Amino acid sequence: MTGYAEIAAHFRSRIASGALAPGQRLPTLREVMAEFEVAQQTASRAYKVLRAEGLTDAATGSGTVVADPTSAISARVRGWAATGRALSANESSEIVEIGTVSADEPIAARLDIEPGSPVFVRRRVVSRDGVPAHLTSSYYPAEVVEATPELAVATSTGGSRELAAERLGSAQDRVLEEVTSRLATDDEKSQLGLTGSGPTVVTQVTRSVWLADGRIVEVAVKVCPGATVLRWSTPLT
To answer: How confident is the model at residue 144 (pLDDT cuts 50, 70, 90)?
Structure first.
C-alpha cells in the first residue's frame, strides 16, 4: 500500500524537476486518493508534509499550489534546465536599466574589487500576475559580461545567470543570501507601486552566487515589499 511519505516524495520530485511550477495547482485530495488508492487521511498527511517543507501553499479558490520560492533560486535553476526559462508561468520581467555604474562598498566587497570600480548592472522589475513583486539589480564581473554579451540586451527570461554559467563552463554551486529590512527609496516605491507618502519598509536580499570552480558569477540586490514572505527549505538529512 502506498504511504503518505511516498506520495509526498512523488510530488516533491515533480516540483524539483520543474514539472510542477510555482503557482501551479496540485491535484485535489480526491484526485490523489483515486490515483494512489489511499484514504483521505493519507493524502492529507502527504500534503501537510509538502506544506511544512515550504514546497506548497493553500491558495483561495485554487486548492493546493506549488509555493512561490521568492528567494529559493534553486527552483529557478531547475526551471531553466527543464524549460530554458527561469521565470514562472505567472511572472514577467521588465528591464529598467542596463549599463556600467561605480561599485559601492557592499557590492565591491562581494565582487572582490575596489569601491568605485566600474561594474556592469542589470536592473529589472519582476511582476507576478501583473503586480510588481521585486526590483532586482544584478551586478556581474567583467569576465561574465565578456562571456555573455546578451547581458547588454534589454530582454529578460530571468535566466541571465544560468546562461552566464553555461558560457563560463561551470555549474552554479553555492549561493549566499543576506536578508535585511530598510526604508524604501522614492525610486523603489515608484518601481514597486508602493503607495503612501510616509516611510515604507522593504525587505532587501543580497544574493551572491558562486560557480563550481569557485568564481563568483553574480551579486544581486533584490528589494521586495515589506510584507513579502521569504522561504527556504533545507534538508537536514
So the answer is: very high
